[in-house]
Structure formats: C-alpha cells, structure tokens
Specification:
With 818 residues, the protein is α/β, with parallel strands linked by helices. The chain is built from 29 helices and 33 strands. Helix 4 (105-114) packs parallel to helix 5 (134-146), helix 7 (200-214) crosses helix 8 (226-236) and helix 12 packs across helix 13. Keywords: ATP-binding, Helicase, Hydrolase, Nucleotide-binding.
C-alpha cells in the first residue's frame, strides 16, 4: 500500500492525472515542494494501469536520481532495487521486477538507442524539464518518434518553471496541460544587493551569517562553482557556529550524503552548493536559502572547439527554483544578493543547451538513431554554427564520412555513448595489450574528469580521487582491464590522445611560449607557468582570459617528431591560393598542413584554370578570418531585402533566397564566382562590390517586388526624390522641413507595414527633428520649431498652418516670383 501525503499540493491532481495518462501526453506545471518528484511517481506505482509496465522517471542529475530513488524506496519501507531502483552513469541498482526506475536523461537516450519501442515501459516522466539539458531535449525528440510505434506509451513533462502552454502546443493538440497552484509552505524574500566595489563572496559570507541567525536548522547557499565554494568556506571557517558542508558533483558520494543529511541534534548546518541543489534534491534541515544569483553554464566556442564554464546571472525561473528550496519542509526565508528592481533585467528562462553547448555528442547520437538533427522535433532551434563544428570534428575523427554517414568505426564509437573523443580513443585501444589498455583507462578518466592542480598530466594512479577515480574504475571495466597501470609513458599517452584530439595539435610560434593550433586558434602558457614546452604539443584542457585572444594551456602532452606521423593525422599535399609579390597577385602553391598549421610549401607544377582558380578563391575566402568580401558596400541592398521580407507572406518568403553571412559564404560558387573570372590580385578581391552579384540572386519578378516594397527613393511633396536609408533601426529619409508642407501623415512603405522616419532639416541642412509621426509633429513640435527658425531663416516660408502650405525648397521671394 502506498500512502500519499494529502497535504501536498499535487495530491488533488493525482486522480485526474492518472485517469488521463495511459497512452496520452500531459504537461504538468507544479511549484517547488508540490510533490511532483515524489508523491506523483508513488501514485503511478500504485495505479492499476502500470502494474504490468515499468515507469521511467528522468532526472537531469545523477545525485538527484539516486537521492529520489532512496527516498521513494524508504517511503515503501523497502531497500532500493526492489520496486524502486535507479540507473545512472557508472552505477545501477534495479532488477527485472523493478517497477519504477529513476535515471538520468543521458541514460534514457541509451535505453532508446537499444530499444526504440521501450518494450515493457508504460510511462516516461521528464522531471525538471526546464533545465533543458542536451539529453533532455534529445531524449524527448527521440521519444516523440518512438510514440509513433507505441500508441499506449504515456508521456509526462513536468517542472515548476516551464512554459507549459508552449510545450503542450509543440507536443500536439492532444496534449493535456495540468497546473498545480500554490506552494506547500510560504517563503519570505529579503534582498541584499552587493555594495558597489565590493567582493560579492565577502558580502555573501556576511549575508550567510545573517541567514544563520534566522535559521532553525540550516542554510542552503547557491554559489556558481567549486572555487567559490572553497572561497566562502574559508571566509566562514571559525566565524560561524555551524557545520559548513560543500555539495558539488566532484566531491565523494559520502561527502554528498553528509550534506543531504539532517544536522545533528542541537547543531545547525550551512550547505554550500552549486545548482546541483536547485531541483529535485531533498536536503534535510534547510529552512533558509541564500542565493548569490550566479551560476556556471557551459558555453561552446566554435573558434577554439572548446566548451568552457562561464559565470553568469541566473534566470527568473532559476531564482524561483532556488527560493523554493527554503519552503519544502516548512515556512522558509530566502536572501537574494540583488535588488528587487534587478529582477526586471533577468531573462525569463535559461537558454537551452542545444543553443549554447557543444553538439558533437548530440549529433553522434542522432546519427546512431538513424536521423539527421533537422529531422528530429526539438522544442528549441539547434545552434547551426555549433552543429557545423560538430560535423567537422566527427569527420576528422573518422566517425562519419564526407557525406555525414556513420562509418564502421563510427558505429563502434557510437556504441560507447558519451564523449566521442574519449570513445574514439577507447575504440583505438580495444585490441591493444593489457598494459596499454590499463594506461588508456588512467588517461581517459583524467580527460573526462580532470584533476585540480595536478603537477603532471596524466597523474599517477595514487593521486586519483573522487569522480576521477570513479571514472577510472568505469573505464577499466569498459576496456576489460584488471591490471594496475605501470609507469606513465608520455610517448604512449601522446599516441593514445591523438586518436581523439587531432585538432588540438599546436606548433610554437617563433621562440616564445605561444602556439598555433590545428583548429586555427592560438594558445599560450601563463606567464607564471614554467613547465617546459617544446616545438610541438597537444593542448587538452584550456582556460580563457578576457584580456587576451589566446587560450591558456592547462593540461597538455609534449609531442615528438615521430608523433606527427600518427595515423589520425593527414599529411597529403594539396593546392591552395596565396598572394605573392608587391601587388599581391593570386598564385597557386602546393602545401602540406595539419589543420591550420602550415608544415611545408612548394611551387605548384601548373597554375589552375580560371574556373579552378575561382574555386580555390572560394576556399580561401571561407577559410580566412579577415573578411575579404566587402559586405559593407552591399549593406544598403541587404538592409532593403531584410525590410522587404517583413512585407511578404510566408508563402512568398519561402521562395526568396537567404542572405545571411553563413549562407552567402557557403554558396560563393553560385553567386560570386561568375563575377570573379578576371580577378587575379588581393586588391581586386578587396575592392570588389558584391551588390550586383547579390541582387542577381533574386529573380526578375523578385527584384520588381523588392522595388515595389522597398524603393530606393521616396518622392517628397516638393517633387524631389530622396534616397531612403535602410541601415538604421527604421528606414528613414533626410530632407528639408519645407518639403513636407501639406503632407498630413508620415509616409509608409512595404505594403503600409513600415513607416518611414523623416529626418527634418533646416534650410541650411542642419537637423531639426526626427519623427515617425508627422501628424503629431505638425500638432505639437512644429510651432516651437517655427518660432526658433523664423528668426534665423526669415527668407524661407514658416506658415502658421503647414498643412495648407505649398511644399517647396525655395525662398519666399522665389515662390512669389516663379
């Protein structure tokens, strides 16, 4: 028998929800502490419809999945692994008879890959969907295809802070929306903005002391990252009478459980956590929250091919989630380190991972699934630049071929799941001897979970701890290793790592400690880093500084000359264009490169034909970062086209070509090459005006439509034609004020959907007024302008009623003597 707390806000919805769920789609919006992660799964567990089928409850984080599983099993008076179990990366506890399995979204994707029909599963629950991890969006997109195979499979998407109506509309008209109003316990909010020119961590420590005085049991503090947790811990040590406990994914499981447990009798605790504690976790003994308003988010930088954690302000949705942690077990208090007025500037929701993160894993999973990314239904658009970078990396790793199809090797890599770089290394050593595989496991663990402040990479086994040691155990199992790795051989490690990081090879520039990488970016050692570095290295982990363009090398391996002959590296000679001589004439040369690194160059045996040269020129322009095409010259045309598109219907717009920079660069052969046949120097390329070529991309009827929607000139009532400037926020025309006498309202273009801004000038051509509402100008501002200008320009007309006056550029004398 399952007992559900009737006082939980979600309890009233459960009968209606259970009645709707079998074979249907539901979006549930419920506030923090409502019971959607605990009471709802237990209710489904007891529902007759799911007695013979398994329920999958998906969580964004490993710790939350395991914590919820233990909590639910405890409610049933059972150990984990009977009716309730869990499955996370590297650990699982369930059996064939387990009815409810709590798992991470990444593990769910692997379930789908192995069994698209989800045999034996009756319901899938996406909890905390607002976090929008890569695998939450991917898992849902894949599941929507599986629903075509299973009309009896139930889907429930739930969160405290998600746009429920938008998601339901996207899922389909048959999707139900249920909302649970009200919080279980009230929360009082106090604002404590950081004083100007103050260290926010020091201020946070002071607010924590204030919060501790209000707490009956404990304080939960949200901080961006591990470094901030360490800093605040030092500030609180010996300054508070409470247990200060960190909660971070990199600490041991025992330390995590200690932070989740209730404080000892008569003690208070302070839990310093990242956003790992934002959702789903029940942290015993918390009645006060201190929110720094900051978080660390993964951001991908295609230029470097690197994903890094960036500290940024949280969204309003995240602030709501964090404050809700104070009211889960009783009335709570939340201290927020910003002013109440600052909330207006916060974004509503966090950007989804498909828009900001590295998409290599997502792309590989889609290939393995048998679909292209654009064929799957994602709730938010996938970042196309990141997707292109992912495609290039998979091709470089030989996981996909030039057509984007999985190779035989790629199928083996995809079967590993997870990071394609690491899986590529693992596949490369699967058939190696045991000592090599043992060293590979040691390497892979440290690539996946780097040690902090290691003196040597990779570190010896004795230095592995926490998550890194857990990952080492996992990789040992994957590679079938029982041996303990012997001494570290940098040569072997470099050989192994190049299978997964061929784009991170770097060659020293000059005699300093700055390097050019194969991916085209620059890296260098920190000025206080005195490690020896040779001519070549492979940079594995990088840090970034806002003060310099080059990335800072963290973990790396030196490379020898023999390492450059690695099978993963291509050394073919190919023809490129270069500019030579004082006039920078185009000339073909044969080069040997490792990515962007020029290894050797020689004169070409023969010069290319005009068409071949044009193709090489296209490649040169695309690969260069200098922006050789003068799009500034074509800016007026591109701005006109952009405005014209607003006046087109969706059907009309579908027939027009795209004019984004990315599209134009990718299609140079179609629109630019016909104009480049006689081009033979850098000066020709730099001075080329692409406007005629871009206009030619439009058909003759489209050009006529463009002229009708967005003409180049507007004829004023004075009879004079004036050029329309489309480069501002709104199209505008500059002309003398007297030229619009008699014009009652502002003119419009683009099927009357866009109003022209009139920049009204004095008789001497100086600005008087800028308006998009001419009628209002005549009624209000004109009289003031007339009063000032009449004395300054007495020879020009300044009528009392401008609407009845003649439009002109003439003086009063010229008007009277035509």
């Amino acid at each position: 028998m399952v007992n559900i707390d009737s006082n939980l806000p979600v309890a009233a919805l459960l009968p209606k929800l259970i009645a709707q769920l079998p074979g249907s789609k539901v979006v549930l919006q419920a506030p923090p502490g409502a019971g959607k992660s605990t009471a709802l799964p237990l209710a489904l567990l007891a529902a007759p419809a799911f007695q013979q089928q398994r329920i999958l409850l998906l969580q964004p984080r490993r710790l939350a999945a395991m914590s919820i599983a233990h909590y639910l099993a405890q409610q049933l008076n059972e150990p984990v692994g009977q009716r309730v179990g869990y499955h996370v990366r590297g650990e699982q506890k369930f059996s064939a008879s387990t009815q409810l399995v709590i798992m991470t979204e990444g593990m769910f994707v692997q379930y789908l890959q192995n069994d698209p029909e989800l045999t034996g599963v009756g319901a899938v629950l996406f909890d905390e969907f607002h976090e929008r991890n890569l695998y939450s969006d991917l898992g849902l997109a894949m599941l929507l295809e599986s629903l075509c195979l299973r009309d009896d499979l139930s889907l429930l998407v739930m969160s405290a802070t998600l746009p429920a109506t938008e998601i339901a509309t996207w899922l389909g008209s048959d999707t139900q929306v249920l909302q649970c109003e009200g919080r279980q316990y009230p929360i009082t909010t106090h604002y404590r903005p950081v004083p100007t020119n103050s260290d926010w961590r020091v201020h946070c420590a002071q607010v924590i002391k204030e919060a501790l005085a209000q707490a009956q049991q404990g304080v939960l503090v949200f901080l961006p990252g591990w470094h901030d947790i360490q800093c605040v811990t030092e500030l609180l040590t010996d300054a508070v009478a409470a247990d200060v406990l960190p909660l971070h994914r990199q600490i041991s499981m025992a330390a995590q459980q200690q932070a989740l447990a209730a404080p000892a009798q008569g003690h208070k605790k302070i839990v310093l956590a990242t956003n790992i504690a934002e959702t789903s976790l029940t942290i015993a003994g918390i009645d006060v929250v201190v929110d720094s308003g900051r978080e660390r988010r993964a951001m991908f930088y295609p230029r470097h091919g690197i994903q890094r954690l960036v500290t940024q302000r949280i969204s309003r949705a995240a602030a709501t989630q964090r404050a809700g942690r104070a009211g889960r077990l009783g009335p709570g208090i939340c201290y927020q380190l910003w002013a109440s007025s600052d909330a207006h500037g916060m974004r509503d929701f966090d950007a989804p991972a498909v828009a900001t993160e590295d998409l290599t894993q997502l792309l590989l999973e889609c290939k393995r699934w048998g679909s292209e990314v654009q064929e799957l239904a994602f709730f938010s658009p996938v970042n196309q630049a990141h997707l292109q970078a992912a495609q290039q990396l998979l091709q470089q790793l030989q996981i996909v071929d030039t057509r984007g199809t999985l190779t035989v090797l790629g199928q083996r890599v995809a079967a590993f799941g997870g990071d394609p770089r690491l899986a590529r290394i693992a596949v490369a050593v699967q058939d190696a001897d045991a000592p090599t595989r043992a060293r590979a496991a040691l390497l892979l663990a440290q690539l996946e979970a780097p040690l902090r402040q290691a003196t040597h990479f990779p570190a010896p086994l004795a230095q592995l701890k926490g998550e890194t040691r857990q990952r080492w155990q996992w990789w040992r199992k994957q590679l079938g290793v029982t041996d303990i790795p012997g001494s570290i051989d940098d040569g072997l490690m470099a050989e192994l790592v190049l299978w997964g990081y061929p784009d991170r090879i770097a060659r020293r520039r000059g005699s300093g400690r700055s390097y050019l990488t194969a991916y085209g970016g620059g890296v260098q050692f920190h000025q206080n880093d005195h490690r020896e570095a040779g001519t070549w290295l492979v940079a594995l982990t990088l840090n970034f500084s806002e003060r310099q363009a080059d990335a800072i090398v963290a973990d790396y391996l030196p490379l020898r000359a023999v390492d450059l002959e690695h099978p993963a590296l291509t050394h073919e000679w190919h023809t490129e264009l270069t500019f030579v001589g004082p006039k920078q004439r185009l000339q073909a040369v044969e080069v040997q490169r490792l990515g962007a690194i020029l290894c050797a160059q020689r004169a070409a045996n023969k010069q290319p034909s005009a068409s071949e040269r044009a193709q090489l020129l296209c490649d040169y322009v695309r690969q260069s970062s200098e922006g050789f095409i003068n799009f500034t010259a074509a800016a007026p045309l591109l701005a006109r086209i952009d405005v014209a598109l607003r006046g087109l219907t969706a059907a009309e717009r579908a027939d027009w070509p795209a004019f984004s920079s990315a599209v134009l660069l990718q299609s140079l052969e179609q629109w630019a090459v016909p104009y480049w046949q006689q081009m033979d120097s850098l000066a020709d390329l730099r001075s080329w005006d692409p406007t005629p070529a871009l206009l030619a991309r439009l058909t003759y009827p489209q050009q006529q439509c463009l002229d009708a929607l967005c003409p180049t000139h507007w004829q004023a009532p004075s009879g004079i034609r004036h050029r329309i400037d489309y480069l501002g926020e709104q199209p505008s025309v500059a002309l003398k004020l007297q030229e619009v006498f008699g014009e009652p309202v502002s003119p419009s273009i683009c099927r009357q959907q866009v109003t022209l801004v009139l920049e009204l000038l004095s008789p001497a051509g100086r600005p008087l007024q800028r308006t998009a509402d001419l009628a209002s100008f005549w009624q209000n501002a004109y009289q003031l302008v007339k009063k000032e200008m009449k004395g300054r320009y007495p020879k020009h007309p300044w009528p009392d009623d401008p609407l009845q006056a003649q439009a002109t550029v003439k003086t009063k004398r010229m008007l009277n003597n035509p």
